[in-house]
Amino acid sequence: MPDVRIHQLEGFFHVAREGGYTKAAQAFPYPIGQPAVYQQVKGLQEALGVALVRQAGPRRTELTPEGRALFAFVAPFFEGLPKVLERVATGGAAPLVLASDQFLAMEALPPALRHAQKKCPGLVVRVEELATAEIVERVRSGHADAGLVLLLKGPPGLNWKPLGRIGAALLVPRNHPLAALGRKPTPQELAPHGLIAYEGDSPGRVLTERLLQEAGGRLKIAAEVTFAQTMRALVRQGVAPAFVPYLHWTKNAKDGKAKRNDTEETEAALPREPNTVAFDVSERLKGGALSFGVVYRSGTEESRAFAALFDGLRAAWS
């Protein structure tokens, strides 16, 4: 393969487009003299062993057939390069891939993304809604730049930045016997009833089992799901009750520290679904509430797009 350098192709591009060495030197985005441009093109022709440019007048050049073929190939690259560089510099060169829990994508991401796009107008985020284990694996393998996820603790080998806490609500179909109680059911009253729960060893499933085990009960499964929205839809249709997550913590505007909502705010934050009633059971978590935050590989923080999104999340939730 011929030993061709990028600066030689750049010189050839400008000469081909401007039709002369002097005008080409003036068209460069940085200072360069006409003799240097001439040497770039001369070196390129020598490396290829073919004439690309010929003199057509005192200060005018034209392309040979080989030169026209090469120009057709390199022109789109050099013409598009300034815009690409600008987009790279402003964080908008390519979508930032964010693997996210569906609940967080719907509840926690929107205000953070609005904030991030004000700071970085070119920012584009591609959201992949996945289960927790898939989110961590996508980030670990490099197929996602970051993950917005619910975790009990940070995964090994990855950076983990908690942003806030998730509360738990018991969502009950309105025609269910537990709703007829008119109050928050006790663990003993819950025990005989099947519940809709997260699948497998997900953090949400672990938390649900913990809620019951600490009260001496065991989880009785009515259905297993991956996402909170599916869980809420099943409760809405009267299938069974479920422990569902909700954003239970807010930012203290005075000291910047997370605090629990007061009673009125908590009631407003509880899941609202037709034909259901909701009870806040967060106090039963006993310090085992889920953290939500961002998981990412070392070095990702150097990306301007990631920095903008992370700043948006931190401004909204921590």
Describe the structure.
The chain is of the alpha/beta class and 318 residues long. The chain folds into three domains: 6-89, Arc Repressor Mutant, subunit A (Orthogonal Bundle), CATH 1.10.10.10; 96-162 and 291-317, Periplasmic binding protein-like II (D-Maltodextrin-Binding Protein, domain 2, 3-Layer(aba) Sandwich), CATH 3.40.190.10; 165-289, D-Maltodextrin-Binding Protein, domain 2 (3-Layer(aba) Sandwich), CATH 3.40.190.10. The chain is 42% helix and 23% strand. It has helices at residues 6-18, 21-27, 34-48, 65-89, 102-107, 109-119, 132-141, 187-190, 203-213, 228-236, 263-269, 304-317; strands at residues 53-57, 60-63, 96-100, 125-129, 146-151, 159-173, 195-198, 221-225, 242-247, 249-251, 258-260, 276-280, 290-296. Mean pLDDT is 85; it is low at 250-266.
Distance between the termini: 55 Å
Helix and strand content put the structural class at alpha/beta
Order of helices and strands: HHHEEHEHHEHEEHEHEHEEEHEEH
Number of strands: 13
CATH topology of the largest domain: D-Maltodextrin-Binding Protein, domain 2
Oligomerization state: single chain
Helix content: 40-55%
Q: How would you name the CATH homologous superfamily of the largest domain?
A: Periplasmic binding protein-like II
Shape: rod-shaped
* Rg, nearest Å: 30 Å
CATH architecture grouping of the largest domain: 3-Layer(aba) Sandwich
Low-confidence stretches: 250-266
Tally of helical segments: 12
Determine the mean pLDDT: 85
Can you tell me the CATH class of the largest domain? Alpha Beta
| Proportion in β-strands | 15-25%
Q: Which sheet architecture does the biggest sheet show?
A: 7 strands, mixed
Structural domains: how many: 3
